[in-house]
Design goal:
- The protein is α+β, with helices and mostly antiparallel strands and 169 residues long.
- The chain has a single domain, classed as Muramoyl-pentapeptide Carboxypeptidase, domain 2 (2-Layer Sandwich), CATH 3.30.1380.
- The protein is built from six helices and four strands, in the order H-H-H-H-E-E-H-H-E-E.
- A four-stranded antiparallel β-sheet has the order 1-2-4-3, with helices on one face.
- A hairpin with a 3-residue loop joins strand 1 and strand 2.
- Helix 2 packs antiparallel against helix 3 and helix 3 packs parallel to helix 6.
- The longest helix has 30 residues.
- The protein is globular, with a radius of gyration of 16 Å.
- The chain starts with a helix and ends with a strand.
């Protein structure tokens, strides 16, 4: 571990990208193993259970690293979204933002792009995404409500794979 501390910033950033890709590869391989053995419904159910816990862990670690306090509202959520592992893998954007709401879009998605390259149908990730994004947002600020604007199995929009709205009522 001490060797990593000696590496220059650019190499550290590349290693972070590698770690994010490794994490996503493991997640995908785990999902496919469950799907092959027990079917897609069981795999999605297991994925939801895993994301329900992981998204909280990821949000809490980001908050700690950035010094964000719980209850930081939409500005804290937008900042934290930029530090998720997905931020190192996919192109994402916030297209609307004020103090009470924002719209977050995943413009590229390594999972969906890989499935299309293999000739597979889009992964119906909305049920998992609802657990993941709502849990992440609630960890940042318990008052944030999450709504899915679009996500597979919804048809792919021209500009993005999925879109999420976060609001403080």
């Amino acid at each position: 571990m001490n060797e990593i501390k000696k590496l220059p910033g650019e190499l550290l950033y590349d290693l972070l990208g590698d770690a994010a890709r490794n994490w996503l590869a493991h997640d995908g391989l785990w999902f496919q193993a469950v799907e092959e053995r027990f079917g897609i419904e069981a795999a999605i159910s297991c994925d939801q259970a895993a994301w329900e816990k992981f998204t909280v862990i990821e949000a809490e670690r980001i908050m700690k690293r950035l010094g964000l306090k719980a209850g930081g509202g939409i500005p804290a959520l937008v900042r934290a979204l930029g530090y998720r592992l997905y931020a190192h893998l996919n192109e994402q954007e916030v297209v609307e933002q004020d103090d009470q709401h924002c719209v977050f879009r995943m413009k590229t998605c390594r999972v969906q792009d890989a499935r299309r390259k293999k000739g597979l149908p889009d992964f119906p990730c909305k049920p998992v995404g609802l657990v993941e994004y709502a849990g992440f947002a609630r960890t940042i600020d318990p008052g944030i409500k999450t709504a899915c604007l679009s996500c597979p199995p919804d048809p792919k929009a021209e500009s993005h794979w999925c879109a999420w709205e976060f609001k403080i009522p």
